[in-house]
Write a structure and sequence with these properties.
7 strands, 49% helix, alpha/beta, 9 helices
Length: 274
């Protein structure tokens, strides 16, 4: 699948294959050095956006930016970014606007997972999951709104999870944080609509996706067995691919979804239908 994304970038540079669904737009994607964030960055760039990749993994983030720039021209920058730090949010947004001249799309993709039931969960673990998975989304929305509005409007896409809709007995902190992202997104959407900012805000709810967030399961069961075990819980019978979620994010980021705000896009292989 990584080869597919690189192929789309090559086609885009050649002027065929891609349709420029976010052509001319400027996007910031947190957690863009790996996993879902990386696939999202690559797809947005392939579809014509200039992209700012932020992450705490500097080597991986710079490599993603370099690969995009090698294929699609100077359309990507990398910025180191601890998404739990408010001052860094302000600095990163200044740098993005300074580099590209504005901001149209924010994808809050950075996140961590933790398998722990409510009795075994430590307070510091609870706080850490909420800091990365929820507080960062609040900070991104709060500080990016003015830049997106000043750029004529756009889209905020917050990555929640199917765990934000369906609870698990051993995911207390993760369930809480991801459910809060869902309702925070609705509040942001209503606020922006009320203010007339021309900014939409929606949440995305994937099920199990083959990204580093599943490493906890790989370490416990082994890579192949972990994917099989998780896949058995999905009606479609498998774990999702990052690009399958990235295409949903692309839709919400593009002008194809201009009448969609305060909603959730569920990409879960059928789990929520059971």
């Amino acid at each position: 699948m990584a080869a597919f994304i690189l192929g789309t970038l090559i086609l885009n540079r050649a002027g065929v294959g891609m349709t420029g669904r976010v052509g001319g737009k400027i996007a910031l994607v947190t957690g863009g050095a790996s996993g879902l964030g990386k696939s999202t960055v690559e797809l947005l760039a392939a579809e014509g956006a200039r992209v700012a990749i932020t992450d705490i993994d500097e080597d991986a983030g710079r490599a993603v930016a370099a690969s995009i720039n090698a294929l699609a021209g100077a359309n990507a920058i990398f910025l180191r970014h601890d998404v739990t730090d408010e001052d860094q949010w302000k600095s990163v947004l200044r740098d993005v606007v300074g580099a590209f001249g504005g901001l149209n799309i924010l994808v809050n993709s950075a996140g961590i997972s933790l398998t722990r039931n409510v009795e075994d969960l430590e307070l510091e673990e609870w706080r850490r999951v909420h800091a990365v998975d929820l507080d960062s989304v609040f900070l991104g929305c709060k500080h990016a709104i003015k830049d997106i509005a000043a750029s004529g409007g756009g889209s905020i896409v917050n990555i929640s999870s199917i765990a934000g809709i369906i609870a698990g007995h051993n995911m207390a902190a993760y369930n809480s944080a991801k459910a809060a992202v869902r309702h925070l997104s609705k509040s942001v959407a209503l606020h922006c609509a009320r203010k007339g900012y021309n900014i939409r805000c929606n949440s995305v709810h994937p099920a199990f996706v083959d990204t580093p967030i599943l490493d906890e399961h790989r370490e416990r069961f082994g890579a192949e067995e972990a994917l099989r075990k998780l896949g058995r819980q999905v009606p479609l019978g498998r774990v999702g691919l990052p690009v399958e979620v990235a295409y949903g994010i692309l839709y919400l980021a593009s002008d194809e979804s201009t009448y969609m705000t305060g909603s959730e896009l569920i990409i879960d292989g059928g789990i929520s239908a059971m």
